[in-house]
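Hello,

Following up on my earlier ticket. Below are the two sequence lines again, exactly as submitted.
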Amino acid sequence: MGGDFAPDAAIAGALQAILELAPEHTLQLVGPTNVIRERVSALSTGELAPAAALADKLEIIEAPDIIEMSDKPTAALRSKPNSSMVVGLRLQTEGRSDAFISAGNTGAQMAASTVLLKLHAGLTRPAIATLFPTARQPMVVLDSGANVDCSAQELVQFARLGSVYAEQILGRPNPGVGLLSIGEEAEKGNAVVKEANQLLRAAGLNFLGNVEGRDLPNGACDRGPIDVVVCDGFVGNIILKLYEAIGPMISGMLGKALGTDEEALRNALRSLDYSEYGGAPLLGVRGVSIISHGKSSSRAIKNALRVAVRAVETGMSDHVGRRLSEAAGQVQQ
Amino acid sequence: MGGDFAPDAAIAGALQAILELAPEHTLQLVGPTNVIRERVSALSTGELAPAAALADKLEIIEAPDIIEMSDKPTAALRSKPNSSMVVGLRLQTEGRSDAFISAGNTGAQMAASTVLLKLHAGLTRPAIATLFPTARQPMVVLDSGANVDCSAQELVQFARLGSVYAEQILGRPNPGVGLLSIGEEAEKGNAVVKEANQLLRAAGLNFLGNVEGRDLPNGACDRGPIDVVVCDGFVGNIILKLYEAIGPMISGMLGKALGTDEEALRNALRSLDYSEYGGAPLLGVRGVSIISHGKSSSRAIKNALRVAVRAVETGMSDHVGRRLSEAAGQVQQ
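Thanks for your patience. The regenerated structure is below:
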């Protein structure tokens, strides 16, 4: 029931996913069952009609409460215990599902995921890992909005989480990790970033050093391709929202200046729209919780399901736990 | 002698400015006089040839030391007391010039400007005010790199400085000031930004509240057009460098996708290149110190001279001083 186009985007995305994903998967739709049933049959037309034949792959689970985008996260979790957010995540703690996806209230999803799924040992916070499109290949930017005012130690945690994600989900062996700063020299940056640079040099990761704003659209710095960009959630959120807004603005400018068809421009720049990548995993929780953009289309939701399946099949959460305990072991030795 | 294309970009820019700016102005070129004299005559050809007739408008001042881009600012000022940076700024303290412009080492220019020109009362730091191109009109972003780890009080100082700049230099009456954050609600942001939001509400400015990354390319938020964007220098530097790199990246993408001529694309997107605006005033110093991009072309230098002339003619520094003392008076009442 979350997101600007709820519930239809989620339901249509799920129906598309049923058709495209392997038949061994079952999809659970969590929310007011009467609404969901009605929308499932209304949307099972046209190219989605064949999904009806796979109705046994679709489970509808009652969750009458709805957390609004404007609700305060922790208050909402207490006052709406039967929201799709809480009910959906609890399925995972009860062993009845493997992954949870929502385009709803991000803060509520983070809080509920942290409380219900719990964090891996050694972590103080989960991080949202968003794919950032570049001229080269998408990079993982984290944290992208969950955590403001991070410590240097937390930035190192984000680097470890992002590395596992880049390896497991993006298939990048030995991913290059950059620390976002204002100069490539280790002594450039604010106090937290300067300390994080020192810690990351000794973290056993493929650390590329500091990367700058200008390196992001290229997906690379002088030391090689960047797979993971580490920053606090304040900076991460600002650059992602800025990046997202530039494509449409430039389409408008070029449409006026060159007379190029704006529709064609928008299509050519679609790969810059990170919402199309579908889902940003909340990394660090014991399980799979995928945060989708509030403006997710059914296509974005289907892509989020694909990310979720890959996270489950590759055992991403277990890898995260193992890496963190290996890192803790190295520190103690 | 500073900048990637020194000294030719500065000298050619100055010659262009002599031709275009009113004859009541005199230009001082500060550096090794033998080098400057040689380059002035070499560059006084073609469209710049008429500048030779205005040779009495050009004063060449000896400054043999050269501060390199890699020099540490404060150490360089001590070890190179006869650099163009120090000599050029001292002309202003001696009443022999009204403004100083450099495309050299930004840190050294900031340090030298602060030490020699001194700050207006009530300020703890100067701020670099960079013009940020938008779909609408350029906005002032400050601080854009001088100051990391700012306090909420310093962000309020930046807002005051930016307001005067927008009024005096950009001619925007009652400029709209936005505080860059991760949500428009006052309670969104990191600790410093949340505190700054409260202080700005009571600062007597046209405060628009928080603005987000997505508002920047549009130059506007829901509450109106944005003239001034306030952020710390860490965030400011990252977003400016990101923005600067996106135009060329998108030109490349569209050239491939649509077969559009990349040269035409780059021209159409030239207004996104903030280095073309010429110069970012270092606001808060008692005087005029204009920081030009290290990659400044002669055109950018000429534009920086234009900014300098406007800053002098409008009495920008005096306005800054008056506004700050008015604000201090209001607080004391």
